[in-house]
Amino acid sequence: MRYTLFGQTGHHVSSLGFGAMNLPGVPLQQAGDALNYALDHGINYVDTAAGYRNSEEIIGETISHRRSDYFLATKTNKRDYASAKEEIERSLVRMKTDVIDLLQIHYVNYVSEFQAAMDAEGAYKAALEMKEAGKVRFIGITGHRPELLAKWIAKGQFDQVLFHLNLAQPFALQELIPTLTKMGMGKVAMKPLSGGFIQPVEKAIRYPYSQDVNVIISGMVSVDEVKQNIAAMEQEVGAEERQELEQLALELGSHNCRRCNYCSCPLEIKIPDVMISSQVRNVFGLLPKGDGFYQKSKESILSCADYEPCKEKPLCEQQCPYHLPMRKVIMEAASYYN
């Protein structure tokens, strides 16, 4: 396991981090076995959020007795001071700990959200107060707009950023990661499989592993998944493999969707999932989770072509900050069912 100095925190963190978002979907014993196996085998970074159902409680129940073995990161998606402070205090209780190593302002994608969180009575004030009280050690931010995140960190108010980085979403490389490196901040990459669309798993994980990041958060729910993820990082990435991965990322990332979720569809099509999986589907096919998404979305995807309000000017495309051809990609996705 590779360990690197995590920004200017003084902590050395494992290159693989345990993403606990999906733990509420499995039995407690299975979740605990996975977490403890991860700690036993060198993973020392655990990532969760107040909004991940009862994920924080699972961590409290299963590994709080090993608190010194891991760097604990959680998040609040509240934007105002009072709600954020209440949520942070609740997180401490849920995870049975006296201190949160990293408290992140969660899922900030709009300028208005950032302004609200950073307001005089915003969530950032709550995080600072908890830091001054010794209940939070460091403060970070997460989001899906890498170019905005690069601007938002300019004042030096954060210690870390959590962002997408995978073969189908390499966009953080353009501005965000160089800015983080220059500022000496913690760099955490999430969604190495892009929510279950990218395969093979080993190749998917080795792409962010080859980049300038401290931790790759992988959502694991079993001992077998932990083993598979650790195995993917046993060998360093050589020059030839790096070049192959970079070329593949150019191809798979050509959809240009950041998963910022500005788009909304009256037919309830999950447009970012269709956009991001479009190139992956053509090159590698889909993992079972990805195929399940398409089967579940069949009716809405096939209905898109006949939806009258979008025929002249698609509603989703009017909302996209990147002006992407969403309707065209969805029309092409319909051929998946032929």
From TrEMBL:
CDD domains for the chain: AKR_unchar
Tree of life domain: Bacteria
GO molecular function: oxidoreductase activity
Stretches assigned to coiled coil: none
Pfam families recorded: Aldo_ket_red
Protein name: Aldo/keto reductase
Boundaries of every NADP-dependent oxidoreductase domain copy: 16-199
